[in-house]
Structure formats: structure tokens, C-alpha cells
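re: ur question from yesterday

yeah so i grabbed the chain u mentioned. its 166 aa long if i counted rite. heres the sequnce exactly as i have it in my notes:
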Amino acid sequence: MTFRVTYFILAVTFGLPLNGCGSAKVAEIPPTVVAANGDVAAYSLRLDVRDGKCVLNYAGPQKGQLETSVPAPCEFLRDPIGNIQHMELNNTPQNGGGIYSVIIVIGGPPALNGRSYKPKEVCGSEARTISLSERGIAVGSLASGLDICLKDRVDEKLFTADSVHV
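ran it thru and got these C-alpha cells back, copy pasting raw so excuse formatting
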């Protein structure tokens, strides 16, 4: 009987304060939004949002802004350690030869079909390739209906299918 009374006292002593913690009201603080940035092929890149669409700011051999038409939120496709994934491709002789790099910007709402949504990952349903070289920057076509996340390993076809020679 003494054990039951002791357990009851312990439960009341520690249980009620813990129960009160669960019902405490906490002000919701919106997450800090940091612009996606990184470096590829002598360019410093940053993604910003304007009118609900992603805008690429770039500085390097060329400097400027490029509207991507990718809906926000947006991010660069990244490798497992956080660098911007890119693929170096050979330019055709008709386009001046040399090498250009292709990156992928992902954005839009996460796809509702496919894998289950993971709120800790940045995923999107749209993507656009962007080609970078010393001669300039160009955008490929917009791909929709995807289910692609920030650090996914993608097939090289995604980089090459809609890339533009620059």
C-alpha cells in the first residue's frame, strides 16, 4: 500500500507540471528565409523571389539578373555536401566550342503524387536548366510535373535534355 501512495505522490508531483507544458501557448515565429546561393564555373549565383517567381542573380564573367519563371519557393539542385550540382558539357564548334556548365533550379509546390512529402526537405514540382559559360547565361525550357528534392541524384538526361549552348 505504501508503494501505491508513493507512486501516486510521484505521479502528481511530476505528472501535472509536465502535462501543463504541453498546453502552453508558444508564439509561432516564421522561419528565416535565406536566399539560395553558391558558386559554379567562375560565377557567384543567388536565387531571389520577385512576384512569386525565382530570379537568378549572377556575377562573374557576365553580371546581371535572369527571370527563371520557376515558381517560388526555389533552390538549386545540390550534391550531398551542399554544393550546387552541375554538369560540364562540350559546346559544339558551330556555337564557338569550349565548355559550358549546366545547373538546375527547382521550385514550385511539392508534387502530391510520387514519394511522400518530407517537410524537412526542399522539394519542387518544376525545374529549369540554366547554362553558364564565359560568353553568357541561357535558360532551358521549364519542366513541370516533377517530384524532385534538393539533394536528389538525378540522371544526366535532366541536365542535357533542355540545356542551351552558350
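noticed a couple things. The longest strand covers residues 136-149. also Residues 30-161 form one domain.
anyway ttyl
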